[in-house]
């Protein structure tokens, strides 16, 4: 039987087309993979949560949305009426386990604790239980995506280096304590951030949205000292809280460095895959004057070539080697620090 198109049918089809064209395609990153959801243009953050619960089977209590410039949002939202249209251009990372994943975990736990053999009942002994709060925090406060540069030699080795930083016991402890959640930790191309006057070792973009680290030597033929890179990472993590290099920033940076060293139970060289990253002599990279705008720059001085900035002054390079230059810069910092401390003590005595 053939049905003719009536005016009423035409109107219904037109309305359906309008409804479809007015939808917003919102892409989230979940478990490192993009997920696209279709929502109505008038949808809100609460509607997005409901959509995630329905289509991805992630219940609201398990949902956490890491939204660029808005930070971490989780149900119940402080402002559930935020329009989804305002989020379309922002990077959104969805943190949370599906109902199936939670059930699988529960089943694994049940299987692990189930009795495996029969026999006489032995006296109960204290059991070592896993700290699930720590496990949950480590899953949330971490580097959610690691990305080496695919166009440089041996990107898989850079990935292992980034994994070592992410899994470093000291770094993990500091991330949990300060609640740092970084969507992307990536490798820096040395050629893009090297001049005759300076060498950028790290970058923090948008207060922890992306952290870049210089892993390789300038010639791409090797990797830099691990402890130097880890110190650079501590510096960039401090930029998640403080932008300018003021007293607040340096206090936090020093605190993070001490925490990382204290909680790192490893010692000596560590094998990563078939590669050995031995500690080696640590570089003196903290020349203070080379930090600009969330960047950690080694040797960033004034406009004159051959000058390395220090806190409050500069040391002429002349024909000295790089190690000698850094040593002189360190001595200059110590002298200025001592003078500043003496001035502070005099001021304190005067005030008393």
Automatic annotation (TrEMBL):
Region (Disordered): 331-352
Organism superkingdom: Eukaryota
GO MF, one example: proteasome binding
Protein name: WLM-domain-containing protein
WLM domain mapped to chain residues: 134-335
A Pfam family of this chain: WLM
InterPro entries noted in UniProt: Ubiquitin-like_domsf, WLM_dom
């Amino acid at each position: 039987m053939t049905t003719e198109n009536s005016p009423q049918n035409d109107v219904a089809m037109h309305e359906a087309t309008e409804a479809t064209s007015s939808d917003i395609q919102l892409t989230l990153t979940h478990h490192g993979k993009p997920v696209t959801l279709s929502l109505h243009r008038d949808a809100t953050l609460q509607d997005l949560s409901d959509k995630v619960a329905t289509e991805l089977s992630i219940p609201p209590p398990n949902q956490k949305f890491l939204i660029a410039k808005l930070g971490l949002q989780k149900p119940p939202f402080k402002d559930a009426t935020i329009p989804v249209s305002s989020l379309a251009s922002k990077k959104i990372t969805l943190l949370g386990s599906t109902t199936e994943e939670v059930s699988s975990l529960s089943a694994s736990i049940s299987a692990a604790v189930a009795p495996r053999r029969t026999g006489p009942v032995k006296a109960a002994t204290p059991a070592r239980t896993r700290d699930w709060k720590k496990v949950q925090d480590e899953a949330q406060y971490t580097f959610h995506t690691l990305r080496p540069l695919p166009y440089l030699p041996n990107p898989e080795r850079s990935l292992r280096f980034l994994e070592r930083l992410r899994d470093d016991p000291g770094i993990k402890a500091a991330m949990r304590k300060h609640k740092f959640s970084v969507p992307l930790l990536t490798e820096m191309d040395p050629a893009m951030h090297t001049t005759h006057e300076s060498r950028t070792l790290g970058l923090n973009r948008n207060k922890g949205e992306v952290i870049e680290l210089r892993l390789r030597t300038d010639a791409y033929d090797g990797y830099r000292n691990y402890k130097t890179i880890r110190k650079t990472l501590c510096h960039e993590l401090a930029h998640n809280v403080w932008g300018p290099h003021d007293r607040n920033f340096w206090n936090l940076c020093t605190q993070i460095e001490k925490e990382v060293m204290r909680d790192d139970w490893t010692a000596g060289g560590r094998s990563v895959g078939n590669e050995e990253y031995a500690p080696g002599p640590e570089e003196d990279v903290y020349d203070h004057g080379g930090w600009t705008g969330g960047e950690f720059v080694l040797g960033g001085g004034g406009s004159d070539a051959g000058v390395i900035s220090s806190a409050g002054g500069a040391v002429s390079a002349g024909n000295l080697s790089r190690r000698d230059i850094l040593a002189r810069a360190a001595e200059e910092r110590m002298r200025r620090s001592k003078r500043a401390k003496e001035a502070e003590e005099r001021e304190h005595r005067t005030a008393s």
